[in-house]
Design brief:
The chain has 134 residues and is an alpha+beta fold. It contains 6 helices and 4 strands. A 4-stranded antiparallel sheet has the order 1-2-3-4.
Length: 134
């Protein structure tokens, strides 16, 4: 009887652990930007965090985005989820840094993020948003 409970429980636990890392690494800067933006628009902040360069400033900014998204009414959340990403300017600065300026079809606000390659992995660095506000 115990074996019948342990095996399915263990299988579910392993599947749950595997889901957290089931996101695929970005192949290039545009891929990282697109995946991060789509996850943000969908309210999938676990996925967005996967594509984020993990430092305290980026974590703070992403947590603010999440808090703002969580406070939206259901209709606005739905409109963000349905929105298309509208790339405006994707500019390679060097072999490890790309600037990605975009809007979305729901809110036409322009946002610029920086995508950096660190240890061979493409990740989003949100600190560019702070630079734009200065």
């Amino acid at each position: 009887m115990i074996k019948k409970l342990i095996i399915p429980t263990l299988a579910l636990w392993l599947a749950a652990c595997n889901n957290e890392t089931s996101f695929r690494k970005a192949e290039d800067a545009q891929d990282a930007g697109r995946e991060f933006i789509r996850a943000s628009l969908d309210g999938n902040y676990d996925k967005a965090r996967f594509y984020l360069f993990a430092d305290s400033t980026n974590e703070m900014l992403l947590n603010k985005w999440r808090k703002d998204f969580d406070q939206l009414n259901p209709e606005s959340k739905s409109k963000y989820k349905e929105a298309n990403i509208l790339p405006i300017n994707i500019q390679t600065q060097n072999d490890s840094v790309t600037s990605y300026t975009y809007a979305n079809s729901y809110k036409k606000d322009t946002t610029t993020i920086k995508i950096v390659r660190i240890n061979g992995e493409w990740l989003v660095d949100l600190k560019e948003i702070l630079n734009d506000k200065k």
